[in-house]
Each structure stands twice: as C-alpha cells, then as structure tokens.
Specification:
Largest sheet of chain A: 7 strands, mixed
Number of strands of chain A: 12
CATH topology of the largest domain in chain A: Isopropylmalate Dehydrogenase
Number of helices of chain A: 12
CATH architecture of the largest domain in chain A: 3-Layer(aba) Sandwich
CATH superfamily of the largest domain in chain A: Isopropylmalate Dehydrogenase
Oligomer: homodimer
Distance between the termini of chain A: 40 Å
Chain lengths: 339, 339
C-alpha cells in the first residue's frame, strides 16, 4: 500500500473538495491508502453516505486550521494541532507514509516543509514546479514559481535538474527541453546571477538546456520546463493565469452586449466550454515541491475535488518513480560547486 | 515649433512605417516639426508622392543601421553614423530639439540614452514605462519594464514618482493608484529590496501608493501604475502580451476546426475584430523612458505606422507637459536617501 496524507482544511472548498478528491483517487489506484487530517467529526460527516473502501482510508484528528493570512513561521510553530502541521509531522516521522497534499496556506506549507521535512541530499533549497498547458496541447513546468524569491546560480541549476527529472519520470517527456526565464535570449542578458546560471546550465550534460526564454514564449510549446528565480517565476505563472482569465471574462461580457453575438456564441457553445476547460488551472493539478526528501504537493487554495484528485495523482506518480533518489544521484555530482 | 527626431531605421517595418507615422502626426499637431534620420535617398523615396508640408519636415543623412543582434555598447561606440546614434547626438546637442522616437534595438537605445543623454537631476537611473489596456477600458503603466534588471529600494521609489507624474500629466489620471509588483499582497512579501521599497513608498506623500499587487491583477483596472524591478516588470509585460496573443491564435484555430464554429464566428466577426484591436499593442504606443533630461520613446520593433504615430504623440505630450521639470521637483526632495 502506498500511503498519502491529505490535509483536509485550509482551502476555499475544504473539507468537501479534499475528501471527494481523496475518494476519487482511491478508485483510480488500487494500492493507495489515504490518511485524512482534520476535525474528525466534520470529516466523518463528509464521508457519510459515500461509497468507498473503508479499509483504505483513515482519519487523524486535528482540531486546528491554519488560515491564509496567518504569518507562516508563527503558524508552523504555534498551530501544532492544525490539519497541516499534523500531516507534516506524520510525513516526517512515519517511514511508510510517502507523501502529502495540502490546499492550505502556501507560506506555512513551505516553512513547514523546509523546517520539518528534510531535503534530498545536496539540494540547497526545494522549489515549486506547477504545470501550465501549452497552445499545442502539451504542457510546460515552471520551476521555481515562488518558494525562493532569492536564488544563486547553483540553485537555478538544481531547479533545472530537479524539474527535468520530474517532467521525464512523472509526465514521460523524453529529454525535456529546459529554458531559463530571462529578459532576452542572449547569454549575456539579465543580472549576474542569471548570466552565471546560464554558464552552469550549459555545463550540465544531464539536462537538455536550450537557452534563455522570453516570457512571451511560455505557451508556445517550444519548452518543457522553464527555470526561474521564485520571484519572476511567480510573476510568470500568475500573469499567464490572470491574463487568460481576464480575457475569457471580457469575451463573455462582450458576447452579452449584442443579440447577434449571443446567437453566434450559441453555435460555438461547445468551443467556448472547451476553451474554458483548457485554461482552467484546476485541471492541471498543483505545484509539486521538488527537492524535499518526501513528496509534498500544494494544490491551489481554490481547488475543487477534481483538482485535489490531480494533486494526489501527482504525489502518487512522484513516489512511484522514486524521484527523490534519482534527483540525489545527479545533484550530488555538483554539490561542491556551492561551497 | 516643437521639434521631434525620428530614427527611421532598425524596426521590422522601417523606414516606411516610421515615415508614415511621422506624416500622420504632422497632420495631428500643427506646431510639430519632424526630423528624420537615416539614409537620405531611401527616405526621400519614401516621401515621394506623399502629401505633406515640406517646411515642417527635414532629413538628416545617416548611412548606418544598428541591428537588433548587435552588442549595445559596441553599437553605440562604433556606429556613430547610424540613424539611431545621429538622432541621439542631435537630441543631446541641440537645445531646440525636444525628443526622439526609435523603433530600433532596445539595448542600444538604453545604452545610448544612459551614456549620451543626461538624466533629470536626482534620478539614479531612467526606467521604461509601457502602457497596457485594462479590462474595464482603462490603462495601466508598468515601470520599469526592462531598463534596469537590478534595482535598489530608492530606485523603485523613483520609478513610482516618475510614472505617477507621467500618468497624471500625459494621460490625465488624477492621483494615479500606484502598486508594487510582488509575490503577494502583504508588506513583508518578496526579498529585502522589495520589503524596503514598500516602506519607502508608504513614506512618500507625493504618490498614492495602494500596496503590493500580484501579477494576476494587472489587467483588473484597479491600478494605474505598477512599479517593478526591470526583470520581473519585463516578465509581466511580455507574459501579458504573449498570453493574449497565443489565446487569440488558439481561438482562431479552433474556430476553423468545425463548420458550425465558423458560422458562429461569422456572426461575431465584428466582436472578434474588436478583441484583436483591443489586445493589439500597436495601439498603445511605445515605452517612454522616464528620467532622462530629454524625452526618448522606444516603439516596438514590430511597430507599424499607427504605432509609430502613437509614439510621436507620447513624446509630444510629454514635452508639452514639462514632465522633466515636474519630476525633478519631487525627486530632489528624496535625493539624499540613496547616499
């Protein structure tokens, strides 16, 4: 049995979405066991009347919830009885638990993962790697998307190694094309950190580094992973999601402005529904944290059941592919560089 | 007469677009005189047969062109006879010339402006401020969008002061709402530089600082200016443009995939044309460089005549509003902070 924890509180649609997502994945993977953390009575209520294999689900009572506006460090230290911190401690302490999924506070989860869960040997700092859809039907990972607002060149190389392995082993991409986010394509673009990182990436035969990428090419389908410092990576991901959502909203508003448009849109109903689904980040799972010794997946705060299920699937596949061990093998080759 | 230089070479549609744009603005502003730099014979050819007031246009012969792939510093030093560098020198040397517009190499233009054109007294570094349309029909400026990949907190404050005055005096926005690009809304988000800048922005009564902005809210219409370091500001602008273009391309492709969609789109033809125009950055002019003692406007490399005309209009309005003097007045109050 592969045991995965799910923090059932802290998201906008918690705990229902989290519980439903867990049940969906129990159907999907017959060797999966889910451990739900959170208020026991509430969770039992959520499960009541549902059809599932009770031997493959357990509840760990955790009466507290970490809110999104709480200071991460304080939350981690003081809310020991929260659904998130109970899950983190169990993940750390129990050898047979493989991974955890949370839709709660990102800051608290990062702080808890950094201080309570160990790193893969040689990894300087874990990094987030969410996935976005590309216009040719593929996908692109962005690493880091916000765990580290300050980086070193060696950290950027590690992000490249970790995310390359992730795309390879979890998404089956052969020789992932890795680019670095920069203000221009030329090697000498950006600040010192990016210029040095460019050199390091060129000197790393374990990855297929294809050069700098300008942000307007993110969705082009020409890249499988984009390596970025956590600040601009965060801007990249949120701008893409924001622009897509705002544009779809504008289209909808404009359609309602004239009868003839409404008529036209009626004929295109299925197409517009498809576009909406295509741009719906709920369909692409969460941000996995790469470089921690045990798998941590952060779902969007607004995750619904289908998105939670995707996050659990990501955690499951990461564990199945023994990603941590594969990461260590390459990372330690370059470990001395940072000293 | 207000004299504005236009570098007629170096853009994708140069020199035709540049010459046409100049003629359009001569029609628009009766007190405008345009000085065209570039190969004289080619420019005369472009003007031949056009209807314009020859007394308000002059040509300065410049046989060389700076390419987009040339190293900026080398180009500035070695291509003295280029259309860009001739314009830059004339702008510097001739008191009665107010401004210049170029659609050539951004790097070369920034290098030339920094080394050849002076700064407004007190300004640490000039910054780019392009404009994007917001979903409620307004506009938002992004400052800096790429001139400075590394910044200090005081530089971010100066970007805020300069861009606030720009939105106020060129676009008539009363008390522009200024936000700072960050990875979250809270004051303590981001690295040290952004945290310190947050404090400085709060302590600057001359601007209406409304707090941090997450990049997904750029097009919401809730902000008039977003202050950013040049690296993430560049990512913000290019991701927005890139996502919008890619989405429109996808819509078009999907429409052609089924007859019924094509039929629907026929009814919505005008709407789709409007959306395309709305997202077409050609309609929003160029990036003005704020903080130089004389006005420099950089148009997109892909600028067509209408976009070049917009850039000239921006330069004209900046000069009319005596922006440099107004900027200096506020900036020097805080000048000692950086020492």
């Amino acid at each position: 049995m592969l045991k995965i924890l799910i923090d059932c509180f802290g998201g906008d649609h918690s705990p229902d979405a989290n519980v439903c997502g867990a049940l969906m994945e129990l159907e999907q993977f017959s060797d999966l066991h889910m451990i739900l953390t959170g208020d026991e009575a509430t969770l039992k209520n959520c499960l009541a009347g549902q059809d599932y294999d009770a031997s493959r689900i357990s509840i760990v009572h955790a009466p507290e919830v970490i809110g999104c506006d709480e200071k991460p460090i304080d939350a981690v230290r003081l809310k020991r009885e929260s659904s998130m911190m109970k899950a983190v401690r169990m993940l750390r302490d129990e050898d047979d638990i493989a991974a955890m999924v949370s839709t709660g506070s990102t800051g608290a989860l990062v702080a808890a993962a950094l201080t309570r869960i160990g790193r893969v040997r040689g990894v300087i700092r874990p990094a987030f790697c969410p996935i976005l859809p590309t216009m040719d039907g593929g996908k692109v990972g962005i690493c880091d998307s916000g765990a580290n607002v300050e980086v070193t060149p060696e950290m950027l190389r590690q992000f490249a190694i970790m995310s390359s392995l992730y795309m390879q082993h979890v998404y089956g991409v052969k020789s992932p094309r890795i680019a670095m986010l920069n203000v221009g394509k030329e090697a000498e673009k950006g600040d010192d950190i990016h210029q040095q990182a460019y050199k390091l990436l060129c000197e790393t035969p374990e990855i297929n580094f294809v050069g700098n990428m300008e942000s307007r090419d993110l969705l082009s389908g020409r890249y499988d992973v984009v390596v970025a410092d956590g600040f601009s990576g965060n801007v990249l991901v949120k701008t893409t999601e924001g622009t897509a959502l705002e544009l779809l909203k504008k289209l909808k508003k404009d359609i309602y402005s004239r009868t003839i448009y409404k008529l036209g849109a009626l004929l295109m109903k299925k197409m517009f529904a498809d576009e909406k689904e295509f741009m719906n980040y709920q369909n692409y799972g969460g941000s996995v944290l790469l470089g921690t010794s045990k798998t941590v997946v952060k779902g969007h705060g607004s995750s619904k059941a289908v998105s939670v299920a995707k996050c659990i699937e990501q955690a499951y596949l990461m564990e199945q592919s023994a990603l941590a061990a594969k990461t260590e093998e390459i990372i330690i080759k370059y470990e001395h560089y940072e000293d």
